[in-house]
Amino acid sequence: MLQALFLALAIITVLIMGGFFLSTLFSYPLIAILFVLCASGIIFTAYALSGKLGGSIIDWMLGSGRRKRNLREQLSADLERTRESKRQGDYDQALRLINEYLQKDADYSQALFLKAQILAEGFGRKAEAKRHLQKIIQMVPNDDPLHRWSLSYYDELNEIEGEKL
Fold first, then answer.
1. Rounded distance, CA 120 to CA 100, Å?
2. Helix (H) or strand (E) holding 76
3. Which pLDDT tens digit goes with each residue over 88-127?
4. What SS3 string covers 80-103?
5. pTM of this prediction?
6. Which residues contact 73 (CB under 8 A, 6 or more apart)?
7. CA Rg, the chain, in Å?
8. Residues 112, 146: contact at Cβ < 8 Å?
9. Exposed/middle/buried for 86, CB within 10 Å: 0-12, 13-18, 19+?
10. Helix or strand (DSSP H, E) at 64
């Protein structure tokens, strides 16, 4: 109801502004241009509120249209900090960060792979690392590169321990 009222008000305002526009077109061209811009804004807002325009544009205009980031996008900086700690050899920090990450998103296969690397390379906990790799191998489709990397890393850990799958 409010949207229809606003749309009617916008149309009336535009008609009034149109009259001013015609009367001031030759006398005051800048004011006429201002009237046109105001009228366009009112019409656009009225259509937006009445739902006649695409939702994404309207959401953007009203401030609620920022694309919602999914959990993994929100946590990507955390995962990158974990990788950086691992690269610098700070495995304690890396393990703490990856555990915090996995508390928020326990089934993210890339995070599980990174945890397996941290456990095996930083702490020598190869059996625990292999359990994470097995989980990835079961979760990820065979044609995904992470599946192949997990299989390869699993085999590498087995060779280091002197056993084979």
1. 18
2. helix 76-87
3. 999 999 999 999 999 988 889 999 999 999 999 999 999 9
4. HHHHHHHHCCCHHHHHHHHHHHHH
5. 0.57
6. none
7. 30
8. no
9. buried
10. none
